[in-house]
Amino acid sequence: MTDLALSTELTRRRPSTVDALVRKVADGAKVALPPDYSGCAMTAVRGLIAKGVADLHIVGVPSGGLQVDWLIGAGCVSVVEMAAMTLGEFGVPPRFAAAQKARSIIVRDGTCPAIHAGLQAAEKGIPFLPLRGILGSDLLKHRDDWQVVQNPMSDTDDPIVIVPAIAPDVALFHAAKVDRNGNVWIGVRRELMLMAHAAKTTLVTAEEQVDTDFLADPALAAGTIPSLYITDFALAPRGAAPVGLTGAYPADRAALADYVSAAQTQAGFDRWFATAPAHAPA
Amino acid sequence: MTDLALSTELTRRRPSTVDALVRKVADGAKVALPPDYSGCAMTAVRGLIAKGVADLHIVGVPSGGLQVDWLIGAGCVSVVEMAAMTLGEFGVPPRFAAAQKARSIIVRDGTCPAIHAGLQAAEKGIPFLPLRGILGSDLLKHRDDWQVVQNPMSDTDDPIVIVPAIAPDVALFHAAKVDRNGNVWIGVRRELMLMAHAAKTTLVTAEEQVDTDFLADPALAAGTIPSLYITDFALAPRGAAPVGLTGAYPADRAALADYVSAAQTQAGFDRWFATAPAHAPA
Amino acid sequence: MSDQPSRAEVMIAAIVPMLAGLGHVAVGAASPIPAAAALLARTVSGGALRVSLLGSAENNPFTDGGRELFDCAAQGRIDAFFLSGGQIDGSANVNLVGIGDYPNLKARFPGSFGSAYLYHLIPRVILFREEHSPRTLVDRVDFVSAAGTSPDGVYRCGGPHALVTGRAVFRFDQARALFELASVHDGETRETITEATGFAFEAAASVPVTPPLAPDARALLRGPVADAVGEIYPAFAALLVGGTPSGRSAPAR
Amino acid sequence: MSDQPSRAEVMIAAIVPMLAGLGHVAVGAASPIPAAAALLARTVSGGALRVSLLGSAENNPFTDGGRELFDCAAQGRIDAFFLSGGQIDGSANVNLVGIGDYPNLKARFPGSFGSAYLYHLIPRVILFREEHSPRTLVDRVDFVSAAGTSPDGVYRCGGPHALVTGRAVFRFDQARALFELASVHDGETRETITEATGFAFEAAASVPVTPPLAPDARALLRGPVADAVGEIYPAFAALLVGGTPSGRSAPAR
Asked: Torsion over CA of A90, A92, A98 and A103, rounded to 10 degrees?
């Protein structure tokens, strides 16, 4: 009885499949995604595209990269909310640039700290967060969800911007490892923890599951998202290719260059994507 | 030249003495201190008392324990702002209880999330943070720095509390280890990082300095406060005794019991404190 | 092992069924009885119930510092929590600050901790106080640390669910803002409870006795649950194992 | 090693003295020239200058996620930062969004990143743009990502300090909200700069030539600084070492 009772068996969690994860993303969902350097679930994004998910509202935390361009190119996106869209040295993502020009998606330009602040507001369950700066930027003219209010703590004129909470339906990212209880180690990539705290559903792909408890290791615990916030996870070795995963494998710069060259046109994107699995080694 | 140029020598930092730390705390300073379970710089607090620091405004993050009772008993405190004062199973700290009764200190009762939120506001450089709950509590009647405002994001009646930023002059705490560059490892005790971000001056005592770079180790980096936020640090082995340091040494319950018994009167406190070094093994 | 359950064990027996079917219960500091009840409920649930014990190394999942419990509650991820009070009144207001006309207090309690916040945000807050007397259960608290109810229009996702004492169990009726006597512990009656209670409450003509733990649950409590609770509350765990009549090992805060 | 400094090297030479005496400079993404200048300035300072490079594993101290740079700036802990822009105008407004009438853009730039925020909070923001032409340095930006100046009463602790291009250096006069030509790079004149600049600026009758790096600083740049920059910008580092005339290895964003 002692064994059954409080043993660690009670807390063990087994991985789902990438397909099962993908099915948890509904059409029209607001999906928070990390930038290319912070753990992108590229394999799962391929799954989303294969499933034909539609009308996504993407939140780049705080910017979007290859995975967002893929989703735009595949016609899965209605809205992109972000501080920037970039492929680093490869410039502005081509399908994003084309979609912005064609006005086929709604682009909600923001600024990095406002996206972090919006997620922090959701994390704290508060409707808004104030933020310094921004005043005088044309961003304000185009964001009807942002307000300028008088600082209620000041007796003198002190206008300040307030931004609403950003509560994603889904946060989706890729991590190096998950432990036997479903805790996810993200190290210093705390924006992933913020996303998980702010989102209703958090879906994670990981390189591997290890048979330990990260929370029992004081060093690892400090960089771990507890399973409490993880709705589901799946294993996807090299699941961040071709953008890479810090500490595991670098960006595949040849694949990125090839993509940018091909995706200048929709037809080129479609062709590239049809053959894309070849670009992401299993 | 290459050696001199970008070598890690440039970033090395040597420890100060506890005395040097203590001299950085001015009379009247607003000092943020952790609760008894989160790394208390007891040796440094003894130093503050020996120096005769006066008129401190203590912020318990979010509650105060033995170190705050010591400072009150030694007459160093004007104001205590906290969600609670507690010695755990030993109850309400005796010098605090006496001072509250005698009205010899100002007690600013709050609630844990409001203290965290106030520090987060200082961390973000914003004047206030909204917070749910609290409405209907008598705390609001006695906190003229808190306000109830209409949520500007809502079209219907939606009162919400806003609390001002708490920007301590000093954050003071004890940690297990400092690296050669002055980075401080705190593991999951992120409230210490929040204090360091929010405070103008952060003073740390540590069990030891180790000749590595925590930021170069992905596991340790996740639980590290960068030296950027550390004004000064000193080595103080067993510097958290008698309240203890998680993972290093437990609370000295006999010493705590002895203290609580002695400190029921001011004379008893004075006697206890005069002989106190004996309670904290070097 | 004594056959006579301690008061703590009866309180645990009363709390466990209140956690049935929930996903996540958190337990604050200085809460040995709730900690034991939550761990027992987790075992009974086969692990479906997640338990987060503040102050525990083994059963505390939080990695974002002191604020995380509160943020987590505001995110709607905590289904149940426990609060005690130096005074609790008939409207389920809780006083954790002191006796007297604040700030002129005759007696000081530790302070409000997170009560003013969590009471509004966690759906099922279970009040617990082992001492059941007119001194602790009062008509009106001297200081409202956390309000039992809120007017319409105030954002509130949570509040009092029940009050478990060393002598009885009350359910709280949020719509009518009053307690109803749900059960009395073995040896008590509606009359003894009325006499011991400083606030008015509702009671049916016939009030059941608080059901004791089933034998297997009791064995779990005195075995593995006591072991686990012992990490934070060693003295309390020893009393659970001993099954002595008095379970007051720690202040009921 | 060529004796002819590259444009990038001249820009670095112009930036380094602007960082003298500071405590902490941060460098954002896609900023190879500022990164090299900051690391060189750190070496010159004997380590007194702290340098935080976003995107670097070795020189990035941040451990609190993507928000930390912004929080750190708001705390007043960052003395200098660098911004570029697809367009920069004579009032030091920066456009990182695109050309055209937003959202009907003829050309899309990546986006504003943190510019709208950091420009207000970091005392010494150094604008950099290698391409110096009427196309990049315009009278009025099409979209203000970040405003160069703010009206009285707006909380602002920071703003533009200077603009460094591939052809010249301007200082920004915040009180008068205009640029003054501070120096021209070797081979340029006040007249060539006027012709290449789409906004009006002030200039003295005689404008000095941007001082090149001293030989020892140049050796540091082409040695250990290039090594360190190579962690993030390998192609740019190779150009620094080679000392080729064109230093355009990465988009100046």
From this structure: 170
